[in-house]
Amino acid sequence: MLGAGHILVQRFGDIIDGKRTWEKELSRSNVRPTLPDAVAGDITAAMPYRAMINIINFIQAVDNVVPGFAAAETLLYSPELKFYSNRVKMDTSFNTSISGLHCLGDSSGWTRGLMMASIMGVLMARAIE
Q1: What is the pLDDT along the chain (129 residues), one digit of tens a residue?
Q2: I need a labelling partner for 112 at 20 to 30 A (CA). Which of 28, 46, 80, 121 fits?
Q3: Checking DSSP bridges between strand 75-77 and strand 8-11, what pairing results, if any?
Q4: d(CA 70, CA 78)
Q5: Cβ-Cβ contacts under 8 Å for 105 (sequence gap 6 or more)
Q6: Distance, CA of 126 to CA of 85 (rounded, Å)
Q7: E-strand stretches of the chain
Q8: pTM of the full predicted structure?
Q9: CA-to-CA distance for 106 and 117, rounded, in angstroms?
Q10: What is the rounded CA–CA span in Å between residue 109 and residue 86?
């Protein structure tokens, strides 16, 4: 894990220069991280190339409207990327092809987030009462 379980933070100027941000550099920066558990690192090592290019292009485009937005000391936190599984084949009672095996929540491929996964759990609980 690149951040040892913590969110990565990197200066925008370092991303543009193709280098990681080090803790020592971050501590001398005029902009301080608002997330105290974030650790300095290299977001580009954790992000797919296309996603990183899109983020850079977005920041530079916003800078045309909000000058300074793409400043070298602007801090970026590593975004959360989610990969969803394929939908598990099951009936309306959440039964899979394996007797007694039920698949719920995001791992089932049928929900996207806590609220829908919670509802699925409630429905399953009612079904096994």
Answers
A1: 466 677 899 999 999 999 999 999 999 989 988 888 889 999 999 888 999 999 999 999 999 999 999 999 999 998 666 666 688 898 888 888 998 888 888 878 888 888 888 998 898 888 886
A2: 46
A3: antiparallel
A4: 16
A5: 111, 117, 120, 121
A6: 25
A7: 8-11, 39-40, 75-77
A8: 0.61
A9: 6
A10: 5
Q: Per the structure block, which two tokens stand in for 8? A: 């990565």
Residue 21, burial from CB neighbour count under 10 angstroms (0-12, 13-18, 19+): buried
Question: Which two structure tokens, joined as six digits, stand for 35?
Answer: 């997330």
Pick from 48, 39, 20, 49: which is nearest to 77 by CA? 39
**Quick one: which of 29, 28, 24, 36 has its CA closest to 12?**
29
User: How many Å separate Cα 33 from the centre of its chain?
Assistant: 17
Take residue 113 and report the two structure tokens written for it.
């987030």
Residue 58 CA to residue 117 CA, distance in Å, equals: 32
Instruction: Classify 76 as helix, strand or coil.
Output: strand
